[in-house]
Amino acid sequence: MKNIFIDVPSQALFLARRRAMSLSGAAVLSAGAVALLGGRDALAAGAKMSAKDLEADVRILNTALGAELEAVAAYQVGAESGLLSKGVLPVAVQFQGHHKEHAQAIAATVQKLGGKPVAAKDKYAFPVEKLKAEADVLRFAAGLERGAISAYLGAVPLFADRALAQVAASILGDEAMHWAVLRQVLGDNPVPSAFMS
């Protein structure tokens, strides 16, 4: 198994590309989405929606929030497993940090929309008994990231508020990058097809 995280130039290039993509992604978010995620309620309130549409969007956001909280817990299991090498552990923790940021932004948006954010479960049913080597932890994480991609792909067209759809698409891109990096480390083709489903 090739470990690309030990190669400092590769990691620096990856982080620089990720920062550039994050900055360019932030520039294309709509004013409503930026307002919701940035805390400017007055600007966000400019987009009027029916109570039914608002309720549906909050339900979708809470589903996404639940998945993000599960990912945070899963990366914690991986980090505490003692199975991740010194080169891989910081990246896993970084990915966990991304999921924490997603969760915080989504929870704040649910509250701004008048909903109650779901809470993390007390316990998740992770297959810890099957995690015996670093590759097992990475495959587990890759599977969760792949599931997140599918969930966000399904959610994006369902949002009544297109600004929220854009934010979900932005998060989807982050999940796809996580999945590709994990596949690369495992020696799998990082981008096995031209389309995600």
TrEMBL record:
**PROSITE patterns attached here?**
TAT
> Superkingdom of the source?
Bacteria
| InterPro entries reported in the protein's UniProt record | Ferritin-like, Ferritin-like_SF, TAT_signal
Name this polypeptide is given: Protein distantly related to ferritins
Biological source species: Acidovorax soli
